[in-house]
Specification:
The protein is of the alpha+beta class and about 110 residues long. Helices cover about 35% and strands about 25% of the residues. The protein folds into two domains: about 80 residues, no CATH class; about 30 residues, no CATH class.
């Protein structure tokens, strides 16, 4: 059964609130974007996560996100603006490697 709660923290005189949900009482996700609540944030908001279950859920999410990114980038060509920025950063004729996909682009 899904449980949704509002968690708050006060910092520098300001109160910040966010809604999170859990389906199992172990893994908590933000209602706003369905992302796993970061482990370093959970104590600040008082979110009662199971640390190992939360780590595992984030790893699963990250693996899925990276696979989707690699698939989306497979046949993508860099825009003229991106090529300009790469030349400005690395120099004309440099080979730039996307560390996530391994794709090499000669600028």
């Amino acid at each position: 059964m899904r449980t949704i709660k509002t968690f708050s923290k006060t910092e520098h005189g300001h109160t910040f609130s966010s809604e999170a949900y859990t389906d199992d009482g172990k893994v908590w996700r933000w209602v706003s974007n369905n992302a796993c609540c970061p482990l370093d944030i959970c104590p600040e908001y008082g979110i009662p996560v199971d640390v190992e279950a939360q780590k595992k859920a984030r790893e699963i999410d990250l693996d899925r996100e990276l696979a989707e990114y690699r698939k989306a980038q497979k046949n993508r060509k860099p825009s003229a603006e991106e090529l300009f920025e790469m030349r400005a950063a690395f120099g004309e004729g440099a080979t730039v490697v996307n560390v996530i996909t391994g794709r090499e682009i000669k600028v």
